[in-house]
Write a structure and sequence with these properties.
Length: about 750
């Protein structure tokens, strides 16, 4: 039976206070590191390796040195000794442990083999093109499918408990006894973050030997301490400033390989030096989402109960680092499956070390697992939403602990009602539009750990009514400044415009890495507590002229003026449940110190449900996504406007991941072939239809006093499988490789 459907006009309200930085951003007033154009600034350009693995044997810089304006060409022969900054996941500070120019070794194509510094950018680039390099090339492994690629068990390589297999019950035995089974393999490509604000570094030294680095980073403290290690100087002699990141998505979450080189050049030449990576260099000199392959096996009984699940993952890493996989962290918790086995393997390839790209493991894992769950629902003849609801979890299947809060069922129920799921017909190919397009409706669930890091917040109120807030955190476009301003304004009775927020400044407050969707849950509770302490102090010291009743109802600035003091300030230090006081040592030392999702008394996740409509042109098989509805369980919604924006952005990312994005690996020479925005295909405005967003909005006060959980990353998790499941509903064809291609649907 064919059903004709029309999409209703969009009328979703955009509630919440205006973003505090919105006007500056749209006017171009917000300044980034790459905008620095002061007089006396020198410019750097990198020389990339043309081989994928080997050694530099000869490097001729004579022609480059003759270019007018060139100050120096730095190579491994003359840059001087400097230490490694280490690998973030190996106790260090960098996105990888390999730092170019420390030796003639070449570890991957596009690696820096020289850096030119000149008076102008044009001269630096011209000279960089003239550096002649001779190599001794070696054999290399380009992909996880290469003949020499060797998948190795993660548990054997990384023997910490957090990287162990995830087990509950006896999944193998339960699978053998299941009445219904699904056995499928899913493939995802390498992908690259492409923030509008490219990675850039400006380094300068003061007369008293203090290094100031301006760099868009999600981890100012890690950059600071990484540089002190590399350069052998005291932490007090390094200041890192990152007030605005301009989009990081995980790519800017640690020390970059070039930062120390820029700092060393500035010291040698006695002038500030600026380096802005090109788009191609961003593809080859920064982290990316690794390629992965997922083997999912599910078992269910005749009543529609999932009885077993085995999720095995092969994930790409580099030759010099082990970038761990943790995709089964969420798939083991999506449903109440009593028998679960999650195993992960790493495959070494000759690339820079992969890293964290928005929902780094969770997006691929959810694509595989939620696609398989949909396949099981159809094998059982069950409605996909009803099937998921019937298999909801009451407690964490892995640890047996309760969830701090879990409202995934409510996300599914609210979403199905708002989407009109009851009008969906079950049979694939049974729904068509008036123009003959095939219509598919798909659903998928997502989860992401609710993590918290230690933080120190400082709030200062002045008699002129201004409030200064300093806290560990980085503004990456997610709206953390707005959420902080809202929190302070509500507590102190101050206008949001009066709140000055200092982020990404290592001299203002310790700056923990902002990633993993823990920014809001980390920064807001201590900010609120500091503001509350300040308010209580003012009420107690308002003076005899202020009656108690007036003090309780007065604004903070009125109380301050009544007290006769020029200012008032308060500080709060907070850490995650179960963390010892010593964790603040890691915070001030620039090391990751986040906790979760497993805490002493509970397990904490954010959840989401996505409902997607696709329309497929019957001849060309072009896929369109005219409508998406997402319902999130992220605890208290601290800033409705920016929260909605986060989910909309995550959905756009999911559409890109499902239908557009893939970094094409050059198996002949290494590196990536489509390393620019002309050929790395991203969704544009014309690809995006209506996106409706709703929230459960129930505080998770077990996790923290404000009841907030992360949102930015869970927003993407599950979008891709919802699209793929919708494509199956429209066509009857199961596609198990991303991104979806027209030829996949055109094949018989």
């Amino acid at each position: 039976m064919a059903t004709n459907l029309k999409t209703a006009p969009r009328n979703t309200p955009r509630a919440g206070a205006e973003r505090v930085d919105a006007r500056d951003k749209v006017r171009g007033a917000t300044r980034y590191a790459a905008d620095d154009a002061r007089a006396g600034l020198l410019h750097a350009a990198l020389v990339p390796s043309r081989i994928a693995r080997g050694t530099v044997t000869v490097i001729d810089t004579a022609a480059a040195q003759r270019v007018r304006g060139v100050r120096q060409v730095f190579t491994h022969e003359n840059v001087g000794a400097f230490d490694t900054g280490g690998f973030l996941m190996g106790g260090g500070f960098g996105f990888q442990s390999f730092y170019p120019l420390r030796s003639p070794q070449v570890a991957y194509r596009g690696q820096t083999v020289a850096m030119v510094v000149a008076d102008t950018l044009e001269a630096a680039r011209e000279a960089a093109a003239l550096v002649a390099v001779t190599y001794e090339a070696a054999l290399f492994v380009a992909t996880i499918d290469a003949p020499d690629a060797q998948p190795l068990a993660q548990t054997a390589l990384l023997q910490q408990p957090m990287f162990a297999d995830r087990r509950a019950g006896d999944a193998e035995a339960a699978l053998q006894g299941a009445a219904f089974t699904v056995d499928a393999t899913y493939e995802l490509p390498t992908q690259h973050q492409n923030p509008m604000e490219i990675i850039a570094t400006v380094a300068e030294w003061s007369a008293d030997g203090v290094l100031t680095v301006r760099e868009p980073t999600q981890n100012a403290e890690g950059v600071r301490h990484g540089l002190t290690k590399q350069l052998g100087i005291e932490p007090a002699k390094v200041r890192v400033l990152s007030p605005t990141v301009g989009g990081g998505f995980g790519q800017k979450n640690s020390l970059q390989s070039h930062t120390a080189l820029v700092a060393m050049a500035a010291r040698t030449l006695g002038q500030p030096v600026k380096l802005v990576l090109s788009r191609s260099q961003l593809f080859h000199n920064a982290s990316f989402r690794p390629a992965s392959r997922h083997h999912v096996r599910l078992g269910a009984d005749r009543n529609g109960k999932l009885t077993a699940a085995i999720h095995e993952i092969d994930q790409q890493t580099s030759q010099h680092d082990l970038f761990p996989s943790s995709g089964t962290e969420i798939t083991s918790r999506l449903y109440g499956i009593g028998n679960f086995l999650g195993r992960e393997r790493l495959v070494r390839t000759d690339v820079q070390t992969p890293g964290y790209m928005r929902a780094p493991f969770e997006h691929p894992a959810a694509f595989a697992f939620e696609s398989a769950v949909d396949e099981m629902a159809y094998a059982l003849g069950r409605d996909p939403v009803a099937f998921r609801l019937a298999n909801d979890a009451a407690v964490d299947p892995i640890s047996g602990k309760p969830f701090s809060s879990r409202h995934l069922a409510e996300c599914l129920a609210k979403g199905s009602t708002a989407f009109g799921w009851a009008r969906r017909t079950m049979a694939p190919g049974s729904m068509r539009a008036a123009d003959g397009s095939l219509i598919g409706w798909g659903v998928a669930a997502g989860a992401y750990k609710a993590a918290i890091a230690p933080a120190v917040a400082k709030v200062r109120l002045n008699t002129n009514g201004t409030v200064r807030v300093a806290v560990g955190g980085h503004e990456m476009g997610q709206g953390i400044r707005t959420a902080i301003a809202l929190t302070v304004a509500r507590t102190l009775g101050a206008p949001m415009a009066a709140v000055e927020i200092v982020l990404g400044d290592t001299t203002a407050a310790p700056q923990h890495l902002t990633a993993g969707s823990w920014g809001t849950a980390t920064a807001l509770p201590p900010v609120q507590e500091a503001a509350q302490r300040l308010m209580e102090d003012l009420r107690q010291n308002a003076g005899a002229a202020t009656a108690a009743g007036d003090a309780n109802g007065a604004t903070a600035v009125a109380l301050l003026r009544a007290s006769g003091r020029p200012f008032a300030e308060a500080e709060s230090r907070m850490r995650a449940p179960g963390q010892p006081e010593q964790v603040f040592g890691r915070l001030t030392g620039g090391l990751p110190a986040a906790a979760g999702p497993v805490y002493p008394d509970f397990v904490a996740f954010s959840f989401i449900a996505h409902f997607v409509e696709v329309r497929i042109e019957p001849t060309t098989r072009r896929i369109r996504v005219p409508r998406v509805l997402s319902v999130a369980d992220c605890g208290t919604v601290a800033s409705p406007r920016t929260a909605r924006s986060q989910v909309e952005g995550g959905v756009v990312w999911g559409i890109g991941a499902a239908l557009r994005e893939a970094s094409e690996v050059d198996a002949r020479y290494g590196g990536f072939l489509n390393a620019d925005l002309a050929e790395y295909v991203l969704p544009v405005a014309a690809d995006i239809g209506r996106i409706d967003v709703d929230f459960v909005g129930k505080p998770d006060t077990r996790l923290n006093a404000m009841g907030v959980k992360g949102l930015g990353e869970v927003a993407m998790v599950g979008v891709a499988p919802a699209i793929v499941n919708a494509v199956f509903h429209a066509t009857g064809k199961r596609l198990r490789r991303l991104p979806l291609r027209l030829e996949d649907l055109l094949e018989s």
